[in-house]
Amino acid sequence: QIKTNFESNLNLALRDYNVTADRHSQAVKKNRRLASGWRRLHCCGVQNYSDWERTEYFTQRGIPQSCCKSQDDCLEEDLKDPSKAKLKVFVDGCFFLVTSTMESKMSVVAGISFGIACFQLVGIILACCLSQYITNNQYEMV
Known about the structure:
By secondary structure, the protein is mostly helical. It has a domain of 94 residues: Cd81 Antigen, Extracellular Domain, Chain: A (Orthogonal Bundle), CATH 1.10.1450. It is built from 7 helices and no strands. It is rod-shaped and about 85 Å long. The protein starts with a helix and ends with a helix. The mean pLDDT is 83.
């Protein structure tokens, strides 16, 4: 369920990438964060770089500069031609990369969660012991 939602959201972000010309809109801010994320992850598109060919952005500008392996060796003409772009951009899609990274970190998250749960359980047990001790002492005072 989570993977499906994540993939559909990535597809929507790809489809709507930089569609608006309004520099102050929320969409442009989200697109900038998305582009910088692609650059850091060394990935392009959802499944692979060719996902861009089905977008409005591709018809106007080609594959985004944020997908380039090297910003210095990435011309706009090359990005408009998928066969040339394949040599200049990251070809792997972001969906598999992100989900596999998340799945590999799940054991760490589960371990931390288990540790916190144990800590909480110890707190509950100590609180019950304290409550029992206070209750026993009140009866002795009478």
